[in-house]
Backbone:
């Protein structure tokens, strides 16, 4: 299929068997707002989270099973087709749920929700996965869920959903040193996070309290301070709701979170002081919205509805509120989306 030049490439991770097309590459046409499959990969079970380097020549995927692994996949830069895995690493992977590259793309971080640990791998010049350089373990009952790098620094934040904590690290040559352990609100379940460096602010969506917690960090990135907590739904909840994902539209200063159970997307405006004000919420046109992404030009949003097996396309309005375009793409249990402009 010819690639629409005026559009986006979307890499997707899902829950599926080794026989399924569990990793898919899609295209989204900006004008037609139409999603099509470009290619797919089999041979990996539950590649629920993926990440892609900036050159789009390598995709990394985890296998979210008890004895999991991480794999690298070369990408043909002309066709965007993902090829057969070129390397695999299983040491230090225990029920993984999140995978991320550092800014230098020399290290790969894997967060192990099931194993209560965090693994760091060195990457070769050809982007294949090399040795484990660090493995951080947490106390029984911990469920680390995400790691995020403070842009332009060697500092990282890990969310621990099980013990309601945030861990602030410095990473040097693949080795992590803990700088601070920050207690979150008891019972909140910090899950995913996003950072707005201009405001030196960290935003955390909590799985259990249907709230966003706002933290500031000092100029040396040495400590986190809780400064605000705000509800994701500004009305009484008639269903059990679980916060999932969080992203920022930086140019327009809006923040978004997905709500599983309420099956909605919450919209907040980010003030000049970095604090949030609630704007609205909209239906995700499906059930159990997990990951979602904002296109680089902040025109569109793609939402992965896991339980209704669809990726929904929305257009972001002038007031920051997404509007359903009517376009959906059917895909088995989508979990993760990564988007690039062609």
Residues:
């Amino acid at each position: 299929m010819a690639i629409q030049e005026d559009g986006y490439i979307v890499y997707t991770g899902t829950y599926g068997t080794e026989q399924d097309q569990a990793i898919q590459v899609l295209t989204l046409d900006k004008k037609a707002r139409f999603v099509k499959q470009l290619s797919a990969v089999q041979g990996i079970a539950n590649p629920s989270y993926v990440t892609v380097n900036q050159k789009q020549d390598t995709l990394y995927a985890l296998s979210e099973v008890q004895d999991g692994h991480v794999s690298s996949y070369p990408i043909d830069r002309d066709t965007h087709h993902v090829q057969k895995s070129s390397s695999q690493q299983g040491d230090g992977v225990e029920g993984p749920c999140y995978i991320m590259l550092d800014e230098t793309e020399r290290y790969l971080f894997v967060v192990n929700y099931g194993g209560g640990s965090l693994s760091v791998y060195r990457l070769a010049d050809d982007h294949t996965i090399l040795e484990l350089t660090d493995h951080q373990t947490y106390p029984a009952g911990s469920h680390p869920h995400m790691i995020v790098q403070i842009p332009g620094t060697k500092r990282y934040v890990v969310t621990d959903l099980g013990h309601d904590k945030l861990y602030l690290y410095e990473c040097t040559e693949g080795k992590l040193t803990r700088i601070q352990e920050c207690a979150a609100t008891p019972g909140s379940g910090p899950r995913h996070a996003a950072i707005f460096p201009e405001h030196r602010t960290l935003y955390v969506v909590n799985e259990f309290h249907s709230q966003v917690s706002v933290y500031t960090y000092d100029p040396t990135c040495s400590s986190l301070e809780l400064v605000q907590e705000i509800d994701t739904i500004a009305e009484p909840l008639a269903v059990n709701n679980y916060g999932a994902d969080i992203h920022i539209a930086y140019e327009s200063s809006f923040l978004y979170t997905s709500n599983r159970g309420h099956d909605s997307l919450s919209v907040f405006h980010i003030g000049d002081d970095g604090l949030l004000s609630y704007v609205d919420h909209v239906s995700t046109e499906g059930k159990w919205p997990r990951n979602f992404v904002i296109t680089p030009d902040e025109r569109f949003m793609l939402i992965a509805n896991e339980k209704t097996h669809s990726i929904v396309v929305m257009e972001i309005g002038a007031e920051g509120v997404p509007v359903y375009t009517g376009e959906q793409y059917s895909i088995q249990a989508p979990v993760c989306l990564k988007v690039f402009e062609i």
Summary: The mean pLDDT is 96. The radius of gyration is 19 Å.
